[in-house]
Predict the structure.
Amino acid sequence: MTLKQRFFPLTPFGLWVLFLSVVLAAALVAALVVLIKGLGVTNLTNLVPWGLWIGIDLSSIALSAGAFVLSAAVYLFKLKKYEPLARTAVFVGMVGYSMALMTLFIDIGRPDRFWHGWFYWNLHSPLWEVTMCVTIYFNVLMLEVAPIIGQADWFKSRWPNLAHRLEHVHKLAPYLAVLGLCLSTLHQSSLGATYGILRARPIWYRPSLAFLFYASAIVAGPALTVLASKIAAYVTPQAKVRREILDPVTRVIGWGLLIYFGLRVWDLLVVSNSSAPGRDEGLVLLTQGSLAFNFWVLEFGLGIIVPIIILLNNRLRRHDRLTMLALALIVIGLIAYRWDTNMVGQLVAFAYQPQLTVPLYTSYTPSLAEWLVGLGVVAYGVLAFTLAVRYLNLVNHEMEPEPVVVKQVAAAAATA
Amino acid sequence: MTTITLKRRDFLKLSLAGVVSTAVGSKFFKRKNNKSDETSPHKWAMVIDLNKCVGCEQCVSACQASNDVAPDMAWNRVLDLGEIKGKETFLPVQCMHCADAPCTRVCPVSATFQRADGIVMMDYDKCIGCRYCEMACPYGARSFNWTAFTGDNPVVPEWGEPDIPRRPRGVVEKCTFCAQRIDRGLAAGLMPGVDEVATPACVVACPTGARLFGDLNDPDSPVSKALAQTNSFRLREAQGNEPRVYYLPVEGQTLPEEVTS
């Protein structure tokens, strides 16, 4: 192997990593510009202070929900069969939460004070609760990921003692699953409550948002994990998936989606549908205005109805590509839902002048810096997953579920 | 013997951990409430008479200078409402210093808080710039420092030197009812709302006397007297924010529907 081949491997894998690295490098430059010049380089305003980056935070946290759902299923509800999938899920979750934390770091006006939430408490604030839960849960996820790193062969051969210790953390799995379930339930719903408690913005001011954020995360989180596993297996033989593991999960996702669909319709027809001033304008914006395409097509049509049809039909679900499409649509639908929810309350501009009867709308398009940073964060997530599939054997459903048992069997075989 | 020492050591360790965590915890829990625990004899409020406001925006200039607010920002704005009852009407808006302020509830780091006398303040050293308070404010009274304000303030030569330091980039700021003037005035034995030095800059600057300031707890204060005499309304009253800026409607005008709904 020549030096050139060693450092610039023009394999599809090498090119893919190179591409992601370029996006990441551009994002680092953009992030540096934001940190030096301040948030003036964004298109955010005092009317729309939360934009693309908040959309990424909300989406990546929601799509990381596979970690707590599958951990709870495997370690608390004893569905041992799905342990390899939970293993993938906790890694996807850890990456997702780190994406959110990085984006938040850039998004706040004073990144040097990111630690203030831990020292200056405000128990009334949903955002404070989210800050605490997300940072604690990120540590839980890192503990859950530790055994995966300890299991990797290259890590074992280099640092055998450390690898042994990291693998040992796996014994904590049930406790971590309890913690993950509690923390996730708290903050996944509180992200909805973050909007739901704002009486200043009538379109948000309703109790259903907390439920909907929680329910949609439970559905879309596992969907991303299954989708990522399937894509990995589709692209490389290093990733090994088993139908017996993925198929039941996709079917359950389909049923979950049906329940979520019911909740959304209930929310739309019953909870949101009132004539409170300011709420009508929000509903009009969603159903007829600039967010209508997202709302009807991405959120409901492609994001909910089409995947339900595919995933709950045994014949359709047999087609692997169709299932992958359905899972991808769920993920897109969730992102659209988070984006629209964040936007709708802000785009209906303040009309508190008593005489003003015509609603005012404002608009928001992310700036180049926002796009670059946003794409870079996504590229980081994809890159982390790509490398983990290759070097941490992340997607492997043929792995022995209990390494301890294998050792005993091996020892028994040796003595016999 | 060894076992006993070990046990004692463990016991001591545990107690120490307990004491430390309780001490740290109680330190945090003291900060849980963003309303001040202290009491104050005052309850500051402002009354704006829409009959008298002519939209000259001198209050805006006085505010920008006194508080060193950047030209692209405003703690105090004057909106043109058009003609009402034959009068060209203007609506000055600012922080309403709500008795039940949504912003103080949502701030994740307790950077915005309410003083015992009702003034909603910002701690610019705590603010992380998440802008959740901007989302929560029903009156759009808050401005974020998207860029650093450098250079001279264009209104200062005409309207006087600022009372308070400039805010850094990356924090949210807003009207304080000129708390610095109130505090300094009270310390000097003056009465805010009566003595000009102790009264918010916008009230002092108003050439038509459309703005009144004073203590709601004092029945003889200018605001108490004005509110006792005439009909008044507040913005977005139905939301229950209990704003402390009152408006006197244009003469003969009935309360608009949006205000009462």
Observations:
- Residues 1-5 of chain B have pLDDT under 50 and may be disordered.
- Chain B has one domain: 34-260.
- Chain B touches chain A through 56 residues (CB under 8 Å).
